[in-house]
Amino acid sequence: MRIDFHTHVIPKDLPNLAEKYGGKWPVLRQTCACGANILVEGKVFREVTDQVWSPTKRIQDMDREGVDIQVLSPIPVTFSYWAPVDAALEMAQLQNDFISETVQENPGRFAGLGTVPMQDTKTAIKEMDRCVHELNLCGIEIGTNVNGENLDAPDFLEFFEMAEKWNVPLFIHPWETMAKDRTPRHNFMYTVGMPSETALAAASLVWSGVMEKFPNLRVCFAHGGGSFPYILPRLDQGWKVWPHLRLTTQPPSHYVHNFYFDSLNYDPLNVNYLIDRFGHEKVMMGSDYPFLLREIPPGKVIDEMTDLTELQKRMILGENALRFLNIKGINDGTKNTDSREETAKSGI
């Protein structure tokens, strides 16, 4: 069972909310039958192919590349945290409905993550409730910051509290990256900005006490956690030498037991580092399909690692994702509402 945890979709018939509301809404404009541009404020943000909206095309690619299940998540540019909450909710619901329908129409091939308007906690919680309890989505994707606020802002505590209470796994993906004025050249936003942004998000959760308050909250960080795994010892050292800044009873590394990471860092050395620091149970294969920086075929680096056991490979390539997403029925897609109890019994 091979599960690609990190893939992105967008509805082909996404309404033009820029015409309806004004502002920097992403707009999908087809350029041909099999391609389109995502426009933001009239400028091309990203060129895409029909892989990004067509389940048929995706399944063809999955069959060719040996992927059994893709986990579908929105493209981060659609988060729209900057927008008025009612309009942002409309954008979120359009995508959540599309992802849910795609999963239902293709049983056994897709699982889905929803999105919520994080700029308003009450609305975000209500839409998370709809996603997991009505649409049967497996989790929620959120950005690394909300309009410049790190994820440890007090406004978000109730959201994390409810995610823990409802056992909703969160996928944290970089967007609106730091140092935007310094990273346009060389596409450094993608190769340097995003990993640094992800590290800041993860550091905010462990340093601030969010993970101490919600010890059963489970989060996965995109792109192998960015640079976070490598700066974690530095965070611990900061906690040690600056006691006046401490907000937790233990150093930051104490609170990473529920951190998961996709495997998308392209190099066996880096994947081995993730495994050594966090355990093979916390790494999930992810490719960033269908974008240019994706790993082709998904799981290529894992397959090439000769120092992993077959059990470890099997877990990273699929079983860890099933556990993280609370999925117990592979063929029928039913969710495992008792996964926390089973995980506790298994000792993982």
UniProtKB/TrEMBL annotation:
Biological or metabolic pathway of the protein: Secondary metabolite metabolism; quinolate metabolism
Domain Amidohydrolase-related residues, every copy: 3-326
Keyword Acyltransferase attributed: no
Molecular functions (GO terms): aminocarboxymuconate-semialdehyde decarboxylase activity
Sections of the chain in a coiled coil: none
Name of one Pfam family that matches: Amidohydro_2
EC number: 4.1.1.45
Top-level lineage group: Bacteria
UniProt xrefs under InterPro entries: ACMSD, Amidohydro-rel, Metal_Hydrolase
UniProt keyword list: Decarboxylase, Lyase, Metal-binding, Zinc
Record's subunit section: Monomer.
Family to which this protein belongs: Belongs to the metallo-dependent hydrolases superfamily. ACMSD family.
Name of this protein: 2-amino-3-carboxymuconate-6-semialdehyde decarboxylase
